[in-house]
């Protein structure tokens, strides 16, 4: 269905309105955690383990405590011994309870050993240097390929717990394990004329949001712990901190100010526990600001995955079977381990609509490196790199254009997707995305390569991608909408805007529903004492899930205003209608009461609150779809790759705010380009992560990206607000496989491991010559 | 040590440790727009103007500003709003955390380069990282802003 006809009548939805907080941000107002933290806050820092695996035998803190200005020095002896997870997920969390705030066993280089808080940074630094730790150094388990059933156990402790059935077993180093499938994939593949069988490897990339992890805590007049945090999941933070501190949930209030980027990193409670326990013990305000170094070495990056793929097609080019095995490295702790891995199969395999059989098995293992977590794409990114690369290899093997192979096999609207929980795709413009991308790239002209006069070679590559829109039957979005004086509304949100603009997007939906100017919607989020419950901003859920909650709440409030207005007019509710300005008699529009008058009337001798809270959860998670195409130019002498052009065509349903949707896409693409070409993670043999600053971990700059062109092919998703699906995550998924194939087309070198650095290409070219 | 400087036009006298960074000093004096994104002079978030020239305040001692003029986004609110409107019209301000340093550098670029090409813009601002926007929307806003300024100048010349 073409959407232009439907969407052209909207006033606020589908419009590129400015973000409500835009002017505060561009003029540099003090709106982030460290801008609003009290100047009296204790500075909190953490002493970090130099060993990848060790037991703390003795830890001396006396001389550290004596330094003037030091408020407390905490070790594992001072913290609760109940395990918890830092993963911001709906209870009961799939992630195992395997953490303590401080533990006598350290499990990676950078693991927390002691917490120091003091009135100034210099004193804290001095105290950190004075702490003496005697370690019993143990052999670390660093190779995730050998971790399962290894004699070294990362979590031998008996109070390790898994709350959900995810196949976890700490005595086998397993954080999760499962298998899923349809049909006899071995037989189907045996009958395929063409089969590709390869292994792909992606690394533990850092989200690298510009604002590092940070939290400010204080006790209020009621003795409750107030937590102001840069988080995507305020409600989960409340539960997790209560678990970590072993105190009642009622003792904690969490709020979030403006957030300097998250990308999933802040779906894990990385920094919060440290100032929280300091404030709880000392009674004093405290703040923890992660350094960039800490954000690199002890945070919650993408899960490193090694994915074995078998994919086969018959002689007509019908892809009939896919077999995937994902080995995921969750590192020292299991945050998001059991859940990210599932997407590596489900959100890759489901791109293909003609499969007769598939199999998807996985193991998620513990090792002695930094814990992994949630990063935009959440496993789908890794799986799509593997499967889309394999499909590109398959096309090559068949001497077929990879675009054509996809045209023949891609999932289409109306199809049931067996590998996607049996859901039907009711909105899918993937075919239109492909056609348009092909046009934009001028694919037929450029495929597969072109030798340039300067000796360089150009190549093009393609990938498709999908994601979900929220977690079906799990995610809950809620909003409260309230009518105020003069008829303006306040929209109270539990969803966390982390820079993406969801406060504005949700206000656009409310303004559309209530037919009022956007300025009449005052947005407020998030304070766990006041805001209605929301799972948080992750899993590409906010627009799709919370957006529907906004519609529900507005519809209810309108009904309430109609009842109230009808009563004032002496009419029955069936006789009246409502528009943005008033409730009026349908038969005689001259007879009306304005919304403003209703608001005042409701404030005087009235028994009805002009306020509604509504929740929404969805039984389905409709996938957005997209196609990405890359054109690269490779210098065959130096291996230097220049990304000339990246074309992306996305179907995210209706774009509620086309500007914000576009910028989400561009931002996600550039992160994907970083993953494909630059962002390297390397460990020393002792398990020390070397890419511990922006010097060693190269983010793409504005000079690295070439042309980026984004277009939308909208479908209409009936279960989403105004036809919308999600956009946040899918956009990071295509660059790695598309660029890898473009490099292959240009050079003949196939890269199955990321990033594809110039050095690797140069080495490859040298070997080939 | 005692230091005297001008911060956004206001004279400041303060006692501080000799090793205090300019970034921490200006934040202490209320210039909270100035952000830190790294410890290795790689991100550009901390960009301020020292005697009109953009510098990374994370990599320079406050003592170096003795007797000099330091300008942060707090001191150029009108300009920030003007360019910021173009940024916001693209939705490219996103999380906003990189915006202050980025905008300071744009204001510096505007003074230094006349009608910069796309390449010149990207080169001048290469040190300003942004993890949200993918840079493309930022570029659109810069180009629209420069064009607007040009038109204003042309109009004034008439
Ligand atoms: S804080 Fe990163 S360059 Fe100054
Ligand atoms: S807008 Fe978030 S880092 Fe640039």
Judging by the overall fold, what is the CATH architecture of one domain in chain A?
Answer: 2-Layer Sandwich
Q: Kindly report the greatest chain-chain contact and the residue count on each side.
A: A-B, 56 and 53 residues
Q: In whole angstroms, how far apart are the ends of chain B? A: 53 Å
Spatial shape of chain B: globular
What order do the helices and strands of chain B follow? EEHEEEHHHH
List keywords for this structure.
heterodimer, A: 769 residues, alpha+beta, Aldehyde Oxidoreductase, domain 4, 20 helices, B: 158 residues, Ubiquitin-like (UB roll), DNA polymerase, domain 1, five-stranded mixed sheet, globular, binds FE2/S2 (inorganic) cluster
Q: How would you summarize this macromolecular structure in one to three sentences?
A:
Chain A is of the alpha+beta class and 769 residues long.
Overview of the structural elements:
In chain A, the strands form seven sheets. Chain A has a seven-stranded mixed beta sheet, sandwiched between helices. In chain A, strands 7-15-14-13-8 form a five-stranded mixed beta sheet. Among the domains of chain A are: 427-467 and 622-769, Aldehyde oxidase/xanthine dehydrogenase, molybdopterin binding domain (Aldehyde Oxidoreductase, domain 4), CATH 3.30.365; 472-616, Aldehyde oxidase/xanthine dehydrogenase, molybdopterin binding domain (Aldehyde Oxidoreductase, domain 4, 2-Layer Sandwich). By secondary structure, chain A is of the alpha+beta class. The model of chain A has no long low-confidence stretch (mean pLDDT 97). Chain A starts with a helix and ends with a helix. Helix content of chain A is 27%, strand content 23%. In chain B, helix 2 (77-90) packs across helix 3 (99-112) and helix 2 packs across helix 5 (136-157). The longest helix of chain B has 22 residues, at 136-157. The radius of gyration of chain B is 16 Å and the shape is globular. At the A-B interface, helix 2 and helix 18 of A face helix 2, helix 3 and helix 5 of B. One FE2/S2 (inorganic) cluster (FES) sits between chains B (94-98, 130-133) and A (210, 261, 499).
């Amino acid at each position: 269905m073409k959407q232009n006809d439907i969407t052209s009548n909207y006033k606020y939805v589908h419009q590129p309105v400015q973000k409500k907080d835009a002017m505060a941000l561009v003029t540099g107002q003090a709106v982030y955690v460290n801008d609003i933290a009290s100047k009296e806050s204790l500075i909190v820092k953490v002493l970090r383990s130099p060993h990848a695996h060790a037991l703390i035998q003795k830890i001396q803190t006396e001389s550290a405590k004596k330094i003037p200005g030091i408020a407390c020095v905490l070790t594992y002896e001072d913290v609760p011994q109940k395990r918890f997870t830092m993963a911001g997920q709906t209870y009961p969390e799939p992630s195992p309870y395997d953490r303590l705030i401080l533990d006598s066993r350290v499990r990676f280089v950078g693991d927390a050993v002691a917490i120091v808080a003091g009135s100034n940074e210099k004193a804290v630094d001095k105290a950190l240097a004075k702490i003496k730790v005697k370690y019993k150094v143990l052999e670390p388990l660093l190779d995730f390929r050998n971790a399962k059933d290894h004699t070294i156990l990362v979590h031998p402790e008996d109070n390790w717990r898994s709350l959900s059935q995810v196949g976890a077993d700490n005595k086998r180093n397993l954080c999760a394990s499962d298998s899923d499938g349809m049909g006899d994939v071995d037989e189907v593949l045996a009958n395929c004329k063409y089969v590709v069988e390869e292994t792909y490897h992606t690394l533990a990339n850092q989200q690298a949001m510009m604002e590092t992890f940070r939290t400010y805590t204080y006790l209020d007049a009621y003795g409750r712990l107030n937590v102001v945090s840069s988080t995507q999941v305020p409600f989960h933070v409340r539960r997790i901190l209560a678990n970590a501190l072993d105190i009642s949930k009622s003792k904690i209030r969490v709020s979030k100010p403006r957030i300097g980027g998250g990308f999933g990193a802040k779906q894990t409670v990385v920094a919060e526990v440290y100032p929280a326990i300091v404030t709880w013990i000392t009674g004093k305000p405290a703040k923890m600001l992660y350094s960039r170094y800490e954000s690199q070495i002890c945070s919650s990056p993408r899960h490193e995955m090694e994915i074995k793929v078998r994919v086969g097609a018959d002689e007509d080019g019908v892809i009939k079977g896919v077999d995937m095995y994902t080995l995921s490295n969750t590192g020292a702790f299991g945050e998001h381990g059991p859940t990210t891995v599932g997407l590596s199969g489900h959100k890759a395999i489901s791109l293909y609509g003609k499969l007769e059989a598939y199999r998807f098995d996985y193991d998620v293992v513990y090792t002695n490196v930094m814990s992994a977590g949630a990063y935009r794409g959440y496993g789908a990114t890794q799986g799509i790199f593997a499967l889309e690369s394999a499909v590109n290899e398959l096309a090559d093997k068949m001497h077929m254009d990879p675009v054509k192979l996809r045209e023949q096999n891609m999932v289409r609207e109306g199809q049931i997707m067996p590998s996607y929980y049996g859901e039907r795709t009711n909105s899918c413009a993937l075919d239109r995305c492909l056609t348009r991308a092909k046009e934009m790239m001028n694919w037929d002209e450029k495929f597969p390569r072109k030798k340039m006069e300067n000796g360089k070679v150009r190549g093009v590559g393609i990938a498709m991608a999908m994601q979900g829109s929220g977690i079906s039957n799990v995610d809950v979005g809620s909003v409260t909408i309230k009518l105020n004086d003069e008829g303006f509304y306040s929209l109270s949100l539990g969803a966390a805007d982390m820079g993406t603009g969801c406060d504005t997007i949700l206000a656009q939906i409310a303004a559309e529903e209530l037919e009022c100017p956007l300025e009449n919607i005052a947005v407020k989020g998030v304070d766990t004492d006041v805001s209605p419950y929301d799972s948080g901003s992750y899993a590409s859920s906010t627009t799709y899930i919370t957006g529907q909650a906004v519609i529900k709440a507005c519809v209810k409030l309108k009904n309430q205003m109609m009842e109230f207005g009808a009563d004032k007019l002496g009419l029955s509710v069936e006789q009246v209608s409502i528009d943005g300005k008033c409730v009026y008699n349908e038969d005689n529009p001259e007879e009306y009461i304005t919304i403003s008058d209703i608001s005042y009337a409701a404030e005087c001798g009235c028994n009805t609150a002009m306020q509604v809270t509504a929740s929404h959860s969805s039984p389905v998670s409709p996938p957005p779809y997209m196609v990405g195409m890359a054109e690269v130019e490779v210098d065959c002498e130096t291996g230097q790759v220049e990304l000339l052009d990246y074309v992306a065509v996305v179907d995210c349903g209706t774009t509620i705010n086309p500007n914000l949707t576009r910028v989400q896409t561009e931002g996600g693409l550039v992160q994907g380009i970083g993953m494909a070409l630059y962002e390297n993670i390397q460990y020393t043999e002792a398990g020390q992560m070397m890419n511990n600053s922006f010097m060693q971990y190269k983010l793409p700059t504005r000079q690295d990206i070439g042309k980026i062109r984004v277009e939308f092919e909208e479908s209409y998703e009936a279960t989403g607000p105004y036809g919308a699906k999600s956009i946040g995550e899918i956009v990071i998924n295509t660059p790695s496989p598309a660029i890898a194939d473009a490099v292959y087309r240009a050079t003949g070198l196939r890269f199955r491991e990321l990033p594809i650095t110039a050095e690797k290409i140069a080495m490859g070219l040298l070997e080939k010559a | 040590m005692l230091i005297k400087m001008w911060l956004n036009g206001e004279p400041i006298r303060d006692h501080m440790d000799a090793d205090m960074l300019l970034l921490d000093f200006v934040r202490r004096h209320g210039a909270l727009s100035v952000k830190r994104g790294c410890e290795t002079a790689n991100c550009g978030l901390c960009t301020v103007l020292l005697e009109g020239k953009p510098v990374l305040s994370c990599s320079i001692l406050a003592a170096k500003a003795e007797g000099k003029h330091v300008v942060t986004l707090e001191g150029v609110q009108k300009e920030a709003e003007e360019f910021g409107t173009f940024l916001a019209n693209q939705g490219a301000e996103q999380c906003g955390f990189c915006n202050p340093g980025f905008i300071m550098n744009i204001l510096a670029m505007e003074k230094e380069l006349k009608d910069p090409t796309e390449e010149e813009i990207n080169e001048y601002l290469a040190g300003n990282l942004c993890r949200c926007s993918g840079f493309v929307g930022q570029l659109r806003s810069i180009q629209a802003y420069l064009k607007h300024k040009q038109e204003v100048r042309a109009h004034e010349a008439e």
